[in-house]
# Entry
Amino acid sequence: MIPSPITNATPITYAGPLPETSDIVVIGGGVIGVCTALALAEQGHRVTLLEKGRIAGEQSSRNWGWIRQQARDPAELPIMIEAIAAWKALAARTNVDIGLRQTGVTYLAKNQRDMDGFAAWLPFAKAHGVDTEILSRSQTMARFPDMATPVIGAMTTQSDMRAEPWVAVPALAAIAARAGVNIIENCAVRTLDIAVGRIAGVVTEAGTIRTQSVVLAAGAWSSLFLRNHGVNIPQLSVRQNVAATGPMPDVGQGAASSNKVAFRRRLDGGYTIASPGAAELFIGPDAFRALPKYMPQLRADPFSQIYLPAAPRGFPDAWGTPRRWTGAEQSPFERMRILDPAPNPRDIKRLLRNFAAMFPGLPPVSLRATWAGMIDTMPDIVPIVDRCAEIPGLVIGTGMSGHGFGIGPGLGPVLAALVTGDAVRHDLTRFRSDRFSKGQRIRLGLTAA
# Structure
């Protein structure tokens, strides 16, 4: 199985047709949108899922493939626990091997500060019955006997899982289609049709669908879409670079991360490797606008970002990207069907050196593929999961901050409940959109891997 994030060259699977009406429209064909649409269809609603490019074309096929409870923000943890069970149930509903394996996630500790951070999170795991353990140095080395990286211990959660994202999310979309979701790829939503102060439909490049309920799960594009309607959220997008090795000797079946490199075993015997920190931020208008909201994050970890000049043309926060358009005009979403950033070659070379130094006994590392993705992130590193106060009928699920792939099957039913008005089983206070209002203190979440 060659690692293959989805691109513009991927054939269209779902071509329509565009319905005149729909009970609910979901904007965005990533894991969050797909799982939300599936949950709604299984409740008996007529659901249309609209994707400007391809299902899982952006971060949902470009992530690391980790499905973890470990080190989640405490408010996310109950939803993530449900996601673990949901992943197992969904994997049983497809004849495609999505690579779902319960092989654990391990964070390696370089120093006592790391161990103290692990110890601080452990009570949350214990309170929810998650099997997280703190390992001594000798216990850690017993799990990774070929590792040369000096560590003083680790935190591990054996019930955490891994999967192949470019296979898994399209497989979930196929389940949704069989459940009755009308999926349409290559169909951008330009604007919302708003009448008498609430949603009356969505205006797409192919026509208008009448509906009173919309879920926005557009990932890195969500902020741009909302800004066109006068709704401002401090969401930015950062680039993460990923490399996939060819088949290699086994150095660990699960996923693990040091301070320099994160890795995950794949079904083909290779490893997907990435940097656990130093995401790359292209400076644009939104970055300047949102800077005050990100100051707590910058003060806490000033070297957590690498700052790059203007984003490539057409990116959500590029200087030349339009911020206003009408339903009669071509939108930025049609101009860039799939956000497909080129990986940073210097970062890829550094990743390979770090992985080789971590396991010096391995044969020379061969590259099978490289890619990059734009991660939608928030100032406090937790998402927005909320009804939009400014636009009745709109529900927002965005800013997953690198958390979306794993939590998607758990978050889909939550967003479905928000849009239908059903009871939500979880406390969503942490995810309210108004938490960034002037004067409110921003409380940082736990850094995700």
The mean pLDDT is 95. The radius of gyration is 21 Å.
